[in-house]
Amino acid sequence: MNNQLKSRIMRRVYAIWFVRRIAPPVVSMAFFAYLALRETAQGFFVAQIVSNFLMIASNVWSIPGFVGAAVMHARPETLFVIAFSILAVFVLAIKLLQNIRMITMHSNQMLGSKVTFK
Q1: How far apart are CA 100 and CA 1, in angstroms?
Q2: Nearest-angstrom CA–CA distance, 73 and 67
Q3: 3-state SS string over 38-61?
Q4: Least C-beta-crowded within 10 Å: which of 32, 57, 97, 115?
């Protein structure tokens, strides 16, 4: 088969695969990230929080008090966003560790069963 024709066919196959498998999750993640950032920006002023945190960060022992006071005085919607974010990070970290474990196990199996050609 002509290499140029083969390249065009494979380019189309990969383009269709990308549109069907990669684009929907990326678009949905971008949409939900936009919603989360918009709600976060409406819920509290992040620059002021960072400024206050940097002022007390010189004393390491005052950081838990700052975080506790911020949580105690936050609105329920803000607490929901924080809790959901912590939960999402925890679930994604578990998935990442599982994937890393699976990849390392698979690569160890592949290295252990080398085939030699004579």
Answers
A1: 39
A2: 10
A3: HHHHHHCCHHHHHHHHHHHCCCHH
A4: 115
Q: Are 40 and 81 in contact (CB under 8 A)?
A: yes
Q: Quick one: the chain helix, strand, coil %, rounded to 5?
A: 85, 0, 15
How far apart CA 36 and CA 78 sit, in angstroms, is 11
Strand, helix or coil for residue 74: coil
Structure-block tokens of residue 107? 């690569």
In sequence order, what are the residues at sequence separation of 6 or more whose Cβ sits closer than 8 angstroms to the Cβ of residue 56?
62, 63, 66
pLDDT tens sequence across 58-85: 888 988 998 888 888 888 887 888 888 8
Nearest Cα to 70, choosing from 90, 48, 89? 48
Checking if the pLDDT of 113 tops 70, the result is no
Q: Give pTM, 2 decimals.
A: 0.48
- List, in order, residues 6 or more apart from 70 with CB less than 8 Å away: 49
Say yes or no to pLDDT of 112 above 70. Answer: no
